[in-house]
Amino acid sequence: AAAEAWARGAAALPKPWKPEKPVLPQEGMRNVLITSALPYVNNVPHLGNIIGCVLSADTFARYCRLRNWNTLYVCGTDEYGTATETKAVEEGLTPQEICDKYNAIHADIYRWFDISFDHFGRTTTPHQTAIAQDIFQRLLARGFLLSDTVEQLQCERCQRFLADRFVEGTCPFCSYEEARGDQCDKCGKLINAVELKNPQCKLCRGVPVVKPTQHLFLDLPKLEERLEPWLEQSWATGDWTANARYITRSWIRDGLKPRCITRDLKWGTPVPLDGFRDKVFYVWFDAPIGYLSITANYTDQWERWWKNPQQ
Fold this sequence. Notes:
Layout: H1 2-8, E1 31-35, H2 47-66, E2 70-77, H3 82-91, H4 95-112, E3 119-122, H5 126-141, E4 145-155, E5 160-161, E6 167-170, E7 179-180, E8 197-201, E9 209-218, H6 224-237, H7 242-254, E10 259-260, E11 262-263, E12 280-281, H8 283-286, H9 290-298, H10 303-306
GO cellular component, one term: aminoacyl-tRNA synthetase multienzyme complex
EC number: 6.1.1.10
Main location: cytoplasm
């Protein structure tokens, strides 16, 4: 087929598909939605960031367009969470100023590399708040959330509970003296911040105390019975990588655990529930919704891409 197409020449090739703006799914066409991992906003992207996710997705998007497939490629900066707050303290700016500064830097660099996004957005938008809170309310109404008490470090001098990255101390496993409250950079083990020896508040260098605080959890064990047959069908009909299958099977094999979805922070999507309005959503819950909200900032018909199994 390649030899015959070559012999016929370029004039015989099908005309390139030029979708209208915004790009929306088309009946009778192959519709392809492409995202690449949302780059975190608190740094200047380097070649590793670009090669790791953005460039491979861009290459695939260009291939899809050459095949005359109706293709939408979206991405954007991931802007909530502790790392933004930490960077803001370092630079003497507000978290919003940090996000504005580095979102512009990211966008400029990707333009320079000619990455072919149809839309490059960000997660600190009204659409992000509306969609994340709507998903939360639906989970709440269906009984998929629970609350529980968590032991957490509090800095009495700063008058705040300390998120994982605002705590440093000695690793309980390898005794590395500059371990963070979520992971040790020396031995690589995950850490619960209250397990650190000689913990210190990263902001004021005070010694925090352990105090109880209420948090909301996604009740994943309730979903397990429905999830297993769905996975079996997806593995049989989809194009899952061997690695994705292996990791997912290990989660199911070990049994799903409730997962905390709130944090005692100021910078994030607010939790719309009495008793938790001083908290925000944990970035693990909030950031993946960024793919939806970025598409919603691109087109008000975003659900045609995200809620459209027929196409």
